[in-house]
Write a structure and sequence with these properties.
Elements: E1 5-8, H1 12-23, E2 28-32, E3 43-47, E4 50-53, H2 64-69, E5 79-81, E6 86-88, E7 96-98, H3 102-109, H4 114-138, H5 150-164, H6 167-177, H7 182-189, H8 193-200, H9 216-222, E8 236-238, H10 243-255, E9 259-262, E10 266-272, E11 275-281, E12 286-288, E13 292-294, H11 298-303, H12 313-320, E14 328-336, E15 350-353, H13 357-368, E16 372-381, E17 395-405, H14 415-430, H15 436-439, E18 440-446, H16 448-455, E19 491-493, H17 507-523
Parallel strand pairs: 1-2, 1-13, 2-9, 6-15, 13-19
Antiparallel strand pairs: 3-4, 5-8, 6-7, 10-11, 11-12, 14-17, 14-18, 15-16, 16-17
Helix pairs in contact: 1-10, 1-17, 3-4, 8-13
């Protein structure tokens, strides 16, 4: 069977790309190896009558054009900002509660540090100003600094004007901040160790780096793109869980005439004479198309699904050097209600256990040497406090992101090791959520190797490749494959491993589809 375009992977970016291509009049099929679309953006049962956002609990920034063009609200998708961003436990006193209201947060910080309370509003403005410029970057094709094409020169000129729009101080702040470590950045602004410890986790979330690593300030800023001024650490919440976004996007694909086939695992991308020809499925079926768009990670797409002989060895080496390294363990707890409501944890708020930046750095040290942190930093949410669909009446779900664990340590994840890890996480949280330990009915531990095996993400990377200065903008995934193209004519990338990727919702799929549609128009 022949299509105009085949999309590999029914994750958020694959579905977005498929919807836009179908909307442009192309005959499109999206192939998903699992039985339901969504990729890493899924809400699944893990214990009878209990559901959790398995891999991620924040869908990330989505371009407004995608929400509008694909009419996702009409598809039932509802997203809001959590009223509480972070709850930070502090020994010997009440926890520090960070909200998207900068003034209220400054008031909450004041009993802990007059200096930091005074600095907070300015810090919020600083982050919002730089992230506003980054949002402009993320909403457009990546700039090519070595291109002489008039369109690229005009794009660079426009970008330069927007950069100058930051003003002299803003330009200096951006150029200075991006290569910094998050530890250095926070030390310039704040003095309270618990506040800096919690904020530092936003600079290392899902990357195998510690707060003292260069470039982690970029990760911090990236994680705030699209959030309002004051929304430091804020979470986007999808009604019904993050899987609702995938459901809405799947509906959008169907509404514009695209097809989705679940349970269809692509085992090979077929090419002839430097041009893509289609794909082969695990069932033995072959599907033909002049365009194949992969939302799988770049390493899997370019070194596993296609014959290495199709590429120049230097290109393959650059792809092999893309750092994946998923550093996280997810622990989902099914619990009785006792001990949770009494703590007054706000619906959808995240409790962050990271007492100091040095604590986070020590946790990183373990994974840096191929191990698993014995005292990881934790980020726990209780989605059932604000959404009854996650747990039966009288019960709750506690979902914990724990960091760090090296992918290389996957051989140590025996059932006993998983249970011991979950017990350690429960003990750590029980210091801040009274009675939690006695309330747990079941715990599921999801490691980087589980993410790789279940969802096809190489080395368990939730970002399809770390966000870093050398894996950013036109160098994402590699500089020799910019703007979603690959050396094989007709083979494109549209996943999180491509610009802007890394935790944005559908942005890579949206921009890739625009490039593909424009390229096919030029061929007519």
């Amino acid at each position: 069977m022949t299509y105009d375009a085949i999309v590999i992977g029914g994750g958020v970016n694959g579905l977005t790309a498929g919807a836009y291509l179908a909307r442009a009049g192309k005959r499109v099929i999206v192939l998903e190896r699992r039985n339901t679309p969504g990729g890493l953006c899924v809400t699944e049962g893990f214990f009878p009558d209990f559901r959790a956002d398995t891999c991620i609990d924040d869908p990330g920034w989505m371009p407004a054009a995608v929400l509008r063009d694909l009419e996702l609200s009409a598809m039932g998708y509802e997203e809001s900002l959590a009223p509480v961003s972070m709850t930070i436990p502090i020994d010997g006193t009440a926890p520090l509660v960070i909200t998207p209201d900068a003034r209220a947060t400054a008031d909450a910080i004041r009993p802990h540090s007059l200096h930091d309370a005074a600095a907070w509003p300015d810090f919020c403005r600083f982050v919002a100003r730089l992230c506003g410029f980054m949002e402009t970057l993320y909403g457009a094709r990546a700039p090519l600094i070595d291109s002489n094409a008039p369109s690229d020169l005009l794009a660079l000129l426009s970008l330069g004007k927007k950069l100058r729009g930051l003003g002299h101080r803003g330009m200096i702040d951006l150029i200075r901040a991006i290569p910094m470590s998050i530890a250095d950045l926070l030390d310039e602004w704040f003095e309270h160790e618990a506040l800096k410890g919690a904020l530092s986790t936003l600079g290392v979330l899902n990357v195998q780096h510690g707060p003292q690593s260069g470039g982690t300030a970029l990760v911090f800023l990236h994680n705030h793109v699209g959030l309002p001024m004051g929304g430091i650490g804020a979470r986007r919440v999808a009604r019904g869980g993050v899987g609702a976004l995938a459901t809405a996007l799947a509906g959008a694909v169907g509404r514009v005439g695209g097809q989705i086939r679940a349970g269809a695992e692509v085992t090979a991308i077929r090419a002839r004479e430097d041009r893509v020809a289609g794909v082969a499925l695990a069932s033995g079926e072959e599907i033909d198309a002049p365009v194949v768009v992969s939302s799988a990670d770049p390493r899997r797409t370019l070194t596993t699904l296609i014959d290495a002989g199709e590429f120049d060895p230097e290109f393959l080496h650059s792809v092999d050097c893309v750092r994946m390294r998923g550093p996280q363990v997810r622990v989902h707890l099914a619990v009785r209600e006792s001990g949770i409501r009494a703590q007054g944890i706000a619906p959808h708020g995240a409790m962050v256990v990271a007492p100091t930046m040095n604590y986070v750095e020590r946790a990183y040290d373990a994974a840096k040497h191929g191990g698993v942190a014995q005292e990881p930093w934790l980020r726990a949410v209780i989605p059932s406090l604000g959404d009854a669909s996650f747990a039966p009446a009288g019960h709750h779900v506690v979902s914990v992101h724990a960091q760090y664990a090296a992918y290389a340590a996957h051989e140590a994840w025996t059932p006993e090791r998983r249970a011991a890890y979950a017990d350690a996480v429960i003990r750590m949280l029980s210091k801040h959520i009274g009675g939690l330990g006695e309330s747990v009915l079941h715990a599921e531990t999801i490691t980087p190797s589980d993410v790789e095996a279940r969802y096809g993400a190489t080395q368990g990377s939730l970002l399809h490749g770390e966000l870093a200065l050398d894996q950013f903008l036109f160098a994402r995934p590699v500089a020799s494959a910019p703007r979603y193209r690959t050396p094989i004519d007709g083979l494109w990338l549209c996943g999180s491993g491509a610009h802007p990727g890394a935790g944005t919702a559908g942005a890579s799929g949206f921009l890739a589809a625009r490039e593909i549609i424009a390229a096919t128009k030029r061929l007519r």
